[in-house]
Amino acid sequence: DGREVSSTWILDAEMGDIASVTLLKDAAATASFGASGGVGAVIITTVTPLEGKPAIAYDYSLAADLPYRAPWARNIAAHHHLLRFDGGTPTFRYGLSAFSRQTPGMERGTERNRAGGNLHLSYQAGDLLIENRLAILHADGKVENAEWRENRDYTETSDAIAVNWHPGKWSLDGSFRYSRQKGDGETRGDYSLSTNDPGDTIFITMSFLRSDYIATTKHANLTILRAVAAGDHSLDAALGADLKWAKARETTHTSGWMAGIYDEFTGKTSMKINSRSAFASLNYAYLQRYLLDVSASLEASSTFAATNARAWAIGAAWNIHGEPGMANSPFTVLRLRANIGNTARVSADDPWDWEKVRNTDVGADAALADGRLSLTANYYHKVAKTIFYVNTPSFPYATLYDVIDEGYELAAKWHATLGRRTTLAISGNLVHDKCSIGESYSLSSVAPAVPVDEQPKVEATLGAHLRYRRFTFQASCYARLGGHYNTTTSLISLLESGGSATRLAGSRWNPAGQDPVAATPSTSRVYTRHSNNFLELRSLHLAYDVPVPRISARSLRVAVIANDIFRTSSFDPAPGARSVTCSLGATF
């Protein structure tokens, strides 16, 4: 909804309030996001209130997780409740939702619970639209065993006001958002603290540690758009500015025995970051067949220079289906496209954490059979220049790396109506990705050798969606074939999970299970190679819309969802958990 959120919010937010998720990967799509979106962006749109008579919807689900290859884990059952109330007129709409999730952990003595609510108000008068979104989220969790006990919780409150005004060929979009997160934690137990120097380990018997923090963010942006059309030519221009103010403070109190001496101390830290950015874009079309896009952004912050956060992209497309000779062709869409650009990612609190990425993307889109069959092909080549820096007394070094990621992706989707009450959709994609480290430029006297993993030759997914009368059935599976990898995390896995070239470079010297920044590099490390073949039936979903009298309810649906049902692999020692979820949803 236009505000930047953390990965913690993604894990704790109510999935039932999310309407759509869009992944942006190429330079043309991410250039306008500045330093935050230098390696990509995920656009999440929440549910908007429905116009009409007031409606109440309630969903309940019971999820059971059944772990395997994990003797320390237990079977668990999680409860989830969601209540939504919305309605309104074409002028004013309202929506209110509340949810609760209680999730015990697979390890005894662990749990994580979430609760929250959302209020969405929308007012429209002619060309003016005003929206207000208020959200409250609370999460708490604990870990407890014979030697360790930890409790943590936080509450996040956010409010966003957006104004959209579209008089004629002009558009004006502005918003102001405020969020506040407050949390605290308490830890009791024993632990050891190690440094990078061999044999330098401090054992601490800690009786108590408590911390609390408050973080606030203010975010304002304004975008002006202008659309111009003259004959066969059309031009859309956008100019925008973005301001962000963030500050946080944390207080910790620690008491315990260190090296035989009891001690206690209180520490306080604070952080304040102000950033501002500007972006511009031009979209030109001739005869709606020949398209050209240009975009650029510049971001500066109180913690990094503007030169490290410049981004630009140029893209072009050709709608071949619009050519006069294609009027009787079987294609409803046939398009060629390409874009090239530079993006940058800069950490707000670490001047050594940055990367610059050169992106090249070429692709084609096609749709046949009145749009029932769609095909997409993409080729991408990305070179990320990043720095891997470790500052330790015994082994300080810094190295510049070129992390190269290239590959292709083929996707297809077919949907059809089979009779009056049956619809079927099948989708799949095929990916070949190769990620490697290219040239390196050592900024110190010593830099360790970098072993390279052989990535899977092919990765593929396949999904099906069948609707028959009141029944809905969905299934998805995943496979990868070829390649080898070490017992540590592979380059492509790190890229998919974190997207940071710094992590890719740093992880090459990790002993398994250690943090890349904290690990001491070693050129004598032994790597065990394993084949990388894998097949998994990821999920099955069966739902039934129960016929109910109109006087009692508008709709009633029961569903069963199973995840991680079956897998086979040449080497997959990691533990997992099969889950079965039963849900009941009703609208009144």
Describe this structure in words.
By secondary structure, the protein is mainly beta. Helix content is 4%, strand content 67%. The protein has four helices and 26 strands. The strands form three sheets. The protein has a 22-stranded antiparallel barrel. Strands 1-2 form a two-stranded antiparallel ribbon. A hairpin with a 6-residue loop joins strand 25 and strand 26. The protein is globular, with a radius of gyration of 27 Å. It starts with 6 loop residues before the first helix and ends with a strand.
What order do the helices and strands come in, and which of them pair?
Blueprint: H1 7-12, E1 18-24, H2 27-30, E2 41-46, E3 52-68, E4 76-88, E5 92-104, E6 110-125, E7 128-144, E8 148-165, E9 170-194, E10 201-230, E11 233-258, E12 261-286, E13 290-301, E14 310-319, E15 331-346, E16 354-368, E17 373-390, E18 397-417, E19 422-442, E20 458-468, E21 471-481, E22 484-485, H3 491-498, H4 501-506, E23 530-531, E24 534-545, E25 555-569, E26 576-587
Antiparallel strand pairs: 1-2, 3-4, 3-26, 4-5, 5-6, 6-7, 7-8, 8-9, 9-10, 10-11, 11-12, 12-13, 13-14, 14-15, 15-16, 16-17, 17-18, 18-19, 19-20, 20-21, 21-24, 22-23, 24-25, 25-26
